[in-house]
Amino acid sequence: MVAGHLFRDLMRLIYFLLPRLAIAALTMLGVSLLVFVSLRLIPGGFADVLLGPFATAEARAMIAAKFGLDESIAVQFFKWLAALLQGDFGTSMVTRKPVIDEFLRRAPVTAEVSLLTFTFAIAIGFPLGVWSGVAEGSGSPRAALGRLVGALGASVPEFVLGSALIFIFSRWSLGLKVGGFVPLGEDLWGNLKTMILPTASLSVFGIALILRTTRDAVLRTMTEGHVLAAIGRGQAPLSIVWHHVLRNAAIPIITVAATYFGFLMGGAVIAEILFSIPGVGYYIFSSLEGRDYAVVQAGVLLAAFIFVAMNMLADLAYAGLDPRIGAKRTRT
Predict the structure, then answer these.
(1) What is the pLDDT of residue 201?
(2) Does 274 reside within a domain?
(3) Can you say whether residue 242 is alpha, beta or left, with left for phi > 0 and alpha for psi between -120 and 50 degrees?
(4) Please, how many CA atoms are within 13 Å of residue 222, restricted to the half-sphere of its CB?
(5) What is the total count of domains within the chain?
(6) What is the pLDDT of residues 40-67, one digit of tens each?
(7) Which of 153, 143, 122, 152 shows the shortest CA–CA distance to 254?
(8) Four-point Cα dihedral 318, 323, 325, 327, nearest 10
(9) Residues 166, 126, 119: CA angle, nearest 5 degrees
(10) Which of 101, 234, 250, 256 has the lowest CB atom count within 10 Å?
C-alpha cells in the first residue's frame, strides 16, 4: 500500500516536471541562439577591437582564421553548441583561459552580493508587505506608508541610487568604502564595508517588489471566505495571519522572490560596474566591450539557466504548498 502511494507520488512528480523541463530546454536553446547571433551583429568584431581601426585586412583575416570567426555563423553556432553539450564552455579569446574557471573564480563574489541583497529584500519587504496588507484590509491609515515605500522603491533606478550613494560616501566617508573590493576571506569587516553600498542600491527595488507582491497577496487573501469566517469567530489576528493568510498568499510571493533571486544570481551587473566589484556581471560586461564572444555567450546562458532553474524551483515549492495545483496540472 505504501509502495503504491510512493509510486503514484513519483509519477505525479514526473508528469509535473516533464513539460517544465521541455520548456526549459527550448528556452535555453532559444537564448543560446539569440545571444550567439546578436553578438556577431554588434558593430566592431573581435579583430577590430583587438587590432584597432588601422589594422590591415590581412591582419584581421589572420585573427578571424585563428579563432574560427571566418566560418559561417551557422557552423560557428553548431560547433559551440556541440562543445557546450559536452561541458566545454569555451576559452576566453582575450586571456586564453577556460571560461568556466574564470566564472568559478568570480562566482563567490556575485553570490555574496546576491545573497545579501536578497536577504535584505526579504527581511524588510516581506514583513512590511504583510503589515501593509493587513492594515489596508482593516482600513487603517498606516497602509499608506507601505504604498509609499513600494512606489518609491520601484521608481528609483538602481544606477541613479547607486550613483547618489557613491557621491555621498565619496564626499563624506561615513565609515563605508566606495570601491576597493576586499575579499570575504581576507577581512570580514572590510568586506562588509565595501558590500553595504552596492547591496543597498540593489535591494531597494527588491524591497519594493517583495513588499508590493506581499501586500497585494495578503489583501486578496483577506477577502476570502475562510479568512472572513475566522475573523467572525473572533480568532486572534496574529493566528489568522499565520494560519490562514500567509499560506494562501505564499504562491505569488514565492514566484516573485524566486524570479528576483534568479535575476540577482545572473549577475548584478549595474552594482558590480558602479562599485567596481569583480563579480560575474562585471566580467561579462568588460568581455562584451572587448568582444570576447566565448565569455559573453557562456555568461548569458548561465544567467538564463539560473533564472529558469529558480522558476522551476518556485513551481515545485508552490505545488507543495497547494497540492491542488500539482494535481490540476498533472491532469492537464
Answers:
(1) 85
(2) yes
(3) alpha
(4) 19
(5) 1
(6) 888 777 777 777 777 777 888 888 888 8
(7) 122
(8) 140
(9) 50
(10) 234
